[in-house]
Write a structure and sequence with these properties.
This protein is α/β, with parallel strands linked by helices. It folds into two domains: 11-258, Type I PLP-dependent aspartate aminotransferase-like (Major domain) (Aspartate Aminotransferase, domain 2); 263-393, Aspartate Aminotransferase, domain 1 (Alpha-Beta Complex). The chain has twelve helices and twelve strands. The strands form two sheets. Strands 1-7-6-5-4-2-3 form a seven-stranded mixed sheet, with helices on both faces. It is globular. The modification N6-(pyridoxal phosphate)lysine is found at residue 213. Its EC number is 4.4.1.8.
Length: 398
Amino acid sequence: MADQDDATLGFATRMSHHGRAGARVHGFVNPPVHRGSTVLFPDCESRKAAGKQRYEQVLTYGTAGGPTHHMLEDMIAEIEGGTRALIVGTGLAAVMVPLLAYLKAGDHCLMPDSVYGPARNLADGLMAGFRIETTYYDPLVDEAATRALIRPNTKVVYTESPGSHTFEVQDIPAIARAAHAAGAKVLMDNTWGFHNFQPFAHGVDVSIQALTKYAGGHSDILLGSVAVNTPEDWSIVKGAASQLGQFASPDDCWLCLRGLRTLPVRLKAQAENGLEVARWLEGRPEVLRLLHPALPSHPQHALYARDFAGACSLFGVVLQPRYSDADAEAVVDALSLFGIGASWGGYESLALPTAPSITRTATDPHDFGGPIIRLHIGLEDTADLIADLAQALDRLPR
């Protein structure tokens, strides 16, 4: 094969070959796990020289990361089209680090009303305690509406597209134009889009991902990433992570690297499975509508088609308004092939009634029309998943 850094190679090829010693190198296919806390130097001068390179991939102490971390960081930057990436211990840590990196006491943050629940908890809790004010905004704002929300002290415009549980697709380029015109940074939770949304090509400054999901792919690791595209942003987020003592297990990093090798085929298969199940659900009389951006029926499907190269397997199902939250829970309880769990992105299917947990302060929490069930579609045979959903829906009162 030609140069492994050749950007013309396809995504699946890059995921198979990058972050490895090479196809023509004698030895094991996968790199080893590097664990360690203490780093030794041959002399004091070498230690001083390493210490001056504060945020480069230089071994100084275990918390700065080692070869296993650095390989994964390079792979994530590669996936998102950025220049550098930082690996932290959880997806929530990946949310926290850049928020605290760019915001200080007296600053203002804009956050979409559809944001991931723990991010809202962070804004209302720790950030509020630090005297950082957060305003929740309608995720469907356009450029003019975003400009109207920005204050002189607004330093961060946070985005998440699609939104957690309700899957609103945001106009990221429009929001970014308004934010940058006011000197604010644009942060985005890109976990749903992953490879299918290139954040830096759409105006994002910092991209956040829960690597726990698709990157790991097997529901057995906790990791997060923060990717950037400029040296200035890298210095800010890496510096904050270092001061906060953020670190990720090298064993989890190694498992994530292994997960990335099969990511392209898993993501493609699960997206196709998800669409097949979603289209079937659209025809069920118990269903009011689907919250799946890749379906033409989705209100922001045009934005999705413009900005995304593909979908993932997580979407929402809105039941008819005659049903209650208890009915939604009964459907989930009746499923046999779907686990009941809050994560997603693994090989297994999941179902979760979400309407009771949706918090809205800027938009109407009841405007979805009925109770919502969030589904993640795994790698099972879709005929089996559809049969399982059918028997569960059949139990609802007519």
